[in-house]
Amino acid sequence: MARVVSQTKSAAVNPLKSSQPLGAAFAFLGVDGAIPLLHGSQGCTSFALALLVRHFNEAIPLQTTAMNEAAIIVGGADRLEEAILSLKARTRPRLIGICTTASVEARDEDVAGDVENIKRKRAIELVGTEVVLANTPDFDGAIEEGWSKAVTAVIEALARPDKQYRNPRKIAILPGWNLTVADIEHLRETAVSFGLDPVILPDVSGALDGSIPEDWMPTTYGGTKLEEIRDLGATMQCIAIGEHMRRPAEALQRLTGVPYVLFRSLTGLENVDRFIRLLAAVSCKQTPLNVRRNRMQLQDAMLDGHFHMAGKKIAIASEPDQLFQFSDFFTAMGAEIAAAVTTTGTSKALEMVPAKTVKVGDLSDLESLAATADLIVTHSHGREAARRLGVPLMRVGFPMFDRFGSQHKLTILYRGTRDVIFDFANIIQANHPPNPWPT
């Protein structure tokens, strides 16, 4: 069990984490016809928007209540109402996902009460649009908490609590923030290959996959439909991926009685085998031939990649669940976690990280611990630390803005695990070439 070392610095020197409001907005982008609305100053939204646009290279429908100094002092209820009605009139979204920021949370405003008053007072104007609130202060937590809170809020607001007919072929999948567009597409394809009908919430593969709609859309296009969310109680099984998705899975079980199974990671042979066995049990079908073939390819890649990964020292920095996802797999391949840095110390996933200690900190902490590492694993903001240390960088997570196609890289199930091995081994070969053959 790893020992979690708390943050001791009063400021982040080279920030590692992204904020809760950004994580919540990210999750709302996985709902069809949605617009995330950050309740706070315009600067908070601009910063989150810049990160999302640079990561996806797409237009992101992110809006703000644009709170100024006066509004923060007297209260933001009027600004919130004005923003909601303006969005409804201009873009006609199916869902407005409100993410609070430090500007209103530090003042301890009753935003939930404000939202309920607006919905009650403006019921006629808001027909056809759901308004969902996620309380996500910037000064607490990080991107995975924001993602988790938004998904929980959507389920609690929309899922029908009454007992429904259970469709034996229908399952719910709650992916964590760290799954890419390609990961979610592959999850769906794998479930469908077993004859299942998966409802994925949130489904960013529909809204952020880089496709260009025929007509300009002011909201998200694609993603989980509101009708699917309302009918989640008709699913036979819920599958949550990542410790931070336990909370929305519990909310769904509490409301509808749908049981859930939690997978902390879907990277690595053993983790994927468990997932495939579950799909086979739920569907009452044998594992399809293409899935079995993918497993054989992974086994071969593990044999080949072991020679490049075994004994290597890894310095890794990420959100807790992604930290566990990759560190667990690297150690299974024979590597050693020389340094582990994360954004928040509250996740139970940190207890399972295969390292002596996990430091809650920033990228400057990673840099101070990674001098003897063979590889640094973190997002694009770690490139300068890697360059100063002369250590190669493997980019994972968010944001990733200095490489094309980051959202189309697989990291889970048999094929994704195989691709992670290839990425790792290729970086090691490019930067640590083997000794030449003796002459």
SSE arrangement:
Blueprint: E1 3-5, H1 20-28, E2 34-39, H2 42-56, E3 63-64, H3 69-74, H4 77-91, E4 95-100, H5 102-105, H6 111-121, E5 130-134, H7 143-158, E6 167-174, H8 181-193, E7 197-200, H9 204-207, H10 226-230, E8 235-241, H11 246-256, E9 260-263, H12 269-283, H13 289-309, E10 313-317, H14 320-332, E11 336-342, E12 357-360, H15 363-369, E13 375-378, H16 383-389, E14 393-395, H17 413-431
Parallel strand pairs: 1-12, 2-3, 2-4, 4-5, 6-7, 6-8, 8-9, 10-11, 10-13, 11-12, 13-14
Helix pairs in contact: 1-7, 7-11, 13-17
Family: Belongs to the NifD/NifK/NifE/NifN family.
Function: This protein may play a role in the biosynthesis of the prosthetic group of nitrogenase (FeMo cofactor).
Organism: Rhizobium lentis
Structure description:
- GO terms for molecular function: nitrogenase activity.
- Pathway: Cofactor biosynthesis; Fe-Mo cofactor biosynthesis.
- Keywords: Nitrogen fixation.
- There is one protein chain.
- The protein has 439 residues and is of the alpha/beta class.
- It has 3 domains: 20-140, Rossmann fold (3-Layer(aba) Sandwich); 167-291, 3-Layer(aba) Sandwich (Rossmann fold); 301-431, Nitrogenase molybdenum iron protein domain (Rossmann fold), CATH 3.40.50.1980.
- It has helices spanning 20-28, 42-56, 69-74, 77-91, 102-105, 111-121, 143-158, 181-193, 204-207, 226-230, 246-256, 269-283, 289-309, 320-332, 363-369, 383-389, 413-431, and strands at residues 3-5, 34-39, 63-64, 95-100, 130-134, 167-174, 197-200, 235-241, 260-263, 313-317, 336-342, 357-360, 375-378, 393-395.
- Helix 7 packs parallel to helix 11 (246-256) and helix 13 runs parallel beside helix 17 (413-431).
- It is globular, with a radius of gyration of 22 Å.
